[in-house]
Amino acid sequence: MNEPTAAPDQQPAQKPAQQTQQPEQPATQQLSRRRFFGGSAAVAGAGGLVLGAGAAVALTGAKAPTPPTDLELVEQRSALTEPFYGEHQGGIATAPQDHLVFTSFDLTATTAVELQLVLAKWSAAMAQMTAGRPVGKVEPSREHAIPVDTGEATDLGAHGLTLTLGFGPSLFDERFGLEKFKPVDFAQLPAMAGESLDPAMTGGDLCIQACSNDPQVAYHAVRNLARMARTSVRTKWTVLGFGRASAGANQTTPRNLMGFKDGTRNITSDDDFAQHVWVGDEAGQPWMVGGSYLVARKIHMLIETWDEDPIGDQQSIFGRTKAEGAPLSGAKEHDVPNFHAVHGGAPAIPGDSHMALAAHENNGGTKILRRGYNFTDGLDSVGRLDAGLMFLSFQKDPEQFISLQRKMGKSDRLNEYIRHVGSGVFAVPAGLPAAGSYYGKEFFA
Ligand SMILES: C=CC1=C(C)c2cc3[nH]c(cc4nc(cc5[nH]c(cc1n2)c(C)c5CCC(=O)O)C(CCC(=O)O)=C4C)c(C)c3C=C
Ligand SMILES: [Fe+2]
């Protein structure tokens, strides 16, 4: 078999551009915005005055401006779509959405043809769902027909859904004859200090990172991908993330569950993406050029212990203030940290603080793109909060993460309050050029 066909109901290709598409505004939205801004601006312009909405009404006799309704705002958010086709997969440079479903899979398939079929079906279905469309009929006309799409995202829209596919090192073992497609030096992460990994939350032949501003849209996507491949893949581990814990360009910095701003000094510029995130020729595999490597670490926080730690200690552990997020050598969040600054005879930013150990200035220029999410699994077996950070990072070489984690695993003061319990590394292929192409196509030529 050479060219598997697309999933049912496949629609025409999306725009190849990689920028965020603003949704077309519904007619009601356009109308109310014109009323809202056009009305008062016209009055202010004519009289050279800045007038409130009420004054504008009094002078012109126009109707009071109508702010967008809740429904209009929901429509606008739900209509947001991220491009699926392009040079890079979505969900990497995409400004982080609000929710995550991360799932790793092991293949139960035993032949290359079965794997090919999974990848072709998934690629077509991903194109559908990121455009806000179902993967097939939700309500088939024949009474005894089983719905193709499970239906829980019907009418919700895409809410900025991105689906990012990764291949684990185990995919390239002898099972499918893909050894020659394995990128140079691509291997499971080495054991590192400070880990208590649970084998049930480690590795996987494939992974999907689903991110959306609506949790149900992200969940629906992974559920339907798993379902359509259920004879060939088995879900290995999954993490539901909420409250993005990283910032992209033009986003405010969110907070992690320790209450600190997380993602202040993240990668945002094209130059940094080119230098630190996107794979070039060095992987020795054309299918990885424009791709990246995803490291996933499920990190449990000892929250009850953390919550009893005095603020001065919490701040010196991160090297930043809690409310503002400023480096301890400065005053404002985006002040550049000065690792040589001294306060009271000691470094202002302690050398064993998380930031000092992780900063590119102290690591030969190494940077990674962080794209993590907070998670909670409720309570553990003895009633403690079971929550933490689903740390996700993208880099052009897994060694970038490994070198940082080796150092931090040994001496980061944060280690007293965290445990790495889940782990995986995945080769994330470049984006697909157009409808009809599918991830891994090169493996089956
Ligand atoms: C090996 C890589 C990293 C792991 C694992 C990690 C875990 C982790 N981080 C926080 C919270 C914060 N991290 C911050 C900065 C920061 N962290 C890393 C890397 C890892 N973090 C880097 C490269 C950086 C940037 C350092 C710099 O250049 O200044 C911060 C500070 C604010 C910020 O810049 O984002 C916080 C807060 C937690 C809670 C955590 C594990 C649970
Ligand atoms: Fe960090």
UniProtKB/TrEMBL annotation:
Native source species: Arthrobacter psychrochitiniphilus
Subcellular location(s) per record: Cell envelope
Family membership noted in the UniProt record: Belongs to the DyP-type peroxidase family.
Xref: PROSITE patterns: DYP_PEROXIDASE, TAT
UniProt keywords, alphabetically: Heme, Iron, Lyase, Metal-binding, Oxidoreductase, Peroxidase, Signal
Reactions this protein catalyses: heme b + 2 H(+) = protoporphyrin IX + Fe(2+)
EC id: 1.11.1.-
GO terms for cellular component: cell envelope; cytosol
Keyword Oxidoreductase: yes
Occurrences of domain Dyp-type peroxidase N-terminal (ranges): 89-242
SUPFAM superfamilies found in the cross-reference section: Dimeric alpha+beta barrel (SSF54909)
Top EC class of this enzyme: oxidoreductase
GO molecular function, one term: peroxidase activity
Protein name as annotated: Deferrochelatase
Main location: other
Required cofactor(s): heme b
Start and end residues of each Dyp-type peroxidase C-terminal domain: 253-431
GO biological process: iron import into cell
Functional summary from the UniProt entry: Involved in the recovery of exogenous heme iron. Extracts iron from heme while preserving the protoporphyrin ring intact.
Cofactor: binding details: Binds 1 heme b (iron(II)-protoporphyrin IX) group non-covalently per subunit.
